[in-house]
Design a protein that fits this description.
Layout: E1 5-9, H1 13-24, E2 30-34, H2 50-53, H3 66-71, E3 74-77, E4 82-86, E5 91-94, E6 100-101, E7 104-107, E8 111-113, E9 126-127, H4 132-138, E10 147-151, H5 155-166, E11 170-175, H6 182-185, H7 187-199, E12 203-206, E13 210-215, E14 220-224, E15 231-233, E16 235-238, E17 242-244, H8 247-251, E18 260-262, E19 273-275, E20 280-284, E21 289-291, H9 296-310, E22 322-327, E23 330-336, E24 343-347, E25 352-359, E26 362-369, H10 372-381, H11 388-392, H12 398-405, H13 407-414
Helix pairs in contact: 1-9, 10-12, 12-13
Bound molecules: flavin-adenine dinucleotide.
């Protein structure tokens, strides 16, 4: 029998985890990861945190240890872009170079930083942060006194702002919404994070969009709609989200609708073609619709689940949306969805607390600062009717609530 070949398009988080899972689950065929970046798979979260701050070097970023890659006979092709897949023949066609014949293909093409659309300044004064190259280019600007303007107050923008301010840079954040992060964690918690930034010297300007970015002899001027004066800076960092990389999927005839549409196991409508990670819009029974998530945990879990599907096994990835962020030495975590006014467990003033969100009487989400263990419990309690005052009582062990209703889960966790 000829050896089967499984190919991933993209060599990021989801592809790396899929490759690792395939080998661990006994796939003895050829595994080829094709990525258009000049690196083997690396973790992106440190790019706005430890790596950008210069605390950790590049060696800490690699997802698959080189010895494991060699021992497990994984082909990692770097600097190669896939143009399309002929889904009838299984040929993976590169932009230049011979096609690779595949028995199964995983689209794990991630996303690209959303570009600024207002009239722009000199390109060398504008920065984005999605790749290791972006981080290498941005890091030297994080010096005392350097004036940086962040356009976009989402999680990545705020992380860059926090890292830059901690390096001594003078940082201004410009956010269109009334409160940074408001659409993700709700206005109350967004305001609290904004205050953390203000307390650390960051100038946060909310509530109006940027209308233009001009270049001057000294740097850049950022015009904000309705503002009396522009923000002056030496450089601009744009953090306004990402767009899924769907060009190759479209060229291959896959169904694309804000991401590659897949079922709960990561299968597209074309046999032997799968998608996972930031680019995949998978069916979630939990949400009752297709969802596309842009977080590390999702990319990793989906990468693992899709590997099972490629091996003909059933493994559904339908975990709740979970992610973390680190800002000014504080660990923030969020799970589920934010709705309405949250109830608080812990001490909001000292920034050691968890906010719980309810949809009717049902727990639908939680946001924490410095209390990751609460999120682990909240994750299990999502979708359950929980008494708000019990959640807020710090004398109550949240895992008692989890196990009260799920003795089997306790048995699983404790064995
Ligand atoms: C700066 C930053 C900080 C982050 N911090 C956090 C965090 O704190 N917590 C969290 O939960 N998440 C965080 N994330 C998100 C997390 O890193 C992503 O969700 C994760 O990397 C997604 O993995 P992926 O494999 O889907 O895509 P990616 O990691 O983006 O990998 C996709 C790869 O495919 C390549 N590719 C695309 N098209 C082609 C093609 N046609 N041919 C070949 N290669 C192609 C891309 O260039 C890329 O290398 C952060 C992201 C960034 C950018």
């Amino acid at each position: 029998m000829t050896r089967r070949t499984y190919v991933t398009i993209g060599a990021g988080q989801a592809a790396a985890v899929a490759a690792r899972t395939l080998r661990r689950r006994g796939f003895d065929g050829r595994i080829v990861l094709i990525g258009d970046e000049p690196h083997p798979p690396y973790q992106r979260p440190p790019l706005s945190k430890e790596f950008l701050a210069g605390v950790d070097g590049e060696d800490s970023l690699w997802i698959l240890p080189p010895k494991w890659v060699a021992d497990n006979d994984i082909d990692i092709v770097t600097g190669a872009s896939v143009a399309r897949v002929d889904t009838l023949s299984g040929a993976v066609e590169l932009d230049g170079g011979a096609p690779v014949a595949a028995d199964a293909v995983l689209f794990a093409t991630g996303g690209s930083a959303r570009r600024l659309t207002v009239p722009g300044p000199r390109p060398d004064l504008v920065h984005y942060l999605r790749t290791l190259e972006d981080a290498r280019r941005l890091a030297p600007l994080l010096t005392p006194g350097r004036r940086l303007a962040l356009i976009g107050g989402g999680f990545i923008g705020l992380e860059i702002a926090a890292t830059a301010a901690s390096s001594g840079a003078a940082v201004t954040v410009v956010e269109t919404d009334p409160v940074p992060l408001g659409r993700i964690v709700g206005p109350q918690m967004g305001e609290l994070v904004a205050q953390l930034h203000r307390d650390n010297g960051i100038d946060i300007r909310c509530g109006a969009p940027v209308s233009g970015v001009r270049t001057t002899a000294e740097g850049v001027l950022i015009d904000i709609e309705g503002a009396a004066a522009p923000v002056e800076a030496d450089a601009v960092v744009v953090g306004i989200g990402m767009v899924p990389n769907v060009g190759t999927a479209i060229a291959s005839g896959l169904q694309v609708d804000n991401g590659i549409v897949v079922d709960a196991a990561g299968r597209t409508s074309v046999p032997n073609v799968y998608a996972a990670g930031d680019v995949a819009r998978r069916f979630s029974a939990r949400a009752g619709r297709h969802v596309r998530l842009e977080h590390f945990d999702n990319a990793s879990r989906q990468g693992a689940a899709v590997a099972h599907a490629m091996l003909g096994r059933d493994a559904v990835c339908d975990e709740p949306n979970w992610f973390w962020s680190d800002q000014f030495g504080r660990n923030l975590q969020f799970v589920g969805t934010a709705r309405g006014e949250p109830v608080i467990r812990g001490d909001r003033d000292t920034l050691e607390f968890t906010a719980f969100y309810f949809d009717g009487g049902t727990l639908c989400g939680a946001f924490t600062v410095e209390r990751g263990e609460d999120i682990a419990a909240a994750r299990e309690l999502l979708g359950r009717t929980v008494d708000a005052s019990t959640l807020c009582d710090d004398d109550v062990d949240l895992f008692d609530l989890v196990y009260d209703e799920e003795p089997e889960l306790e048995a699983q966790v404790r064995t």
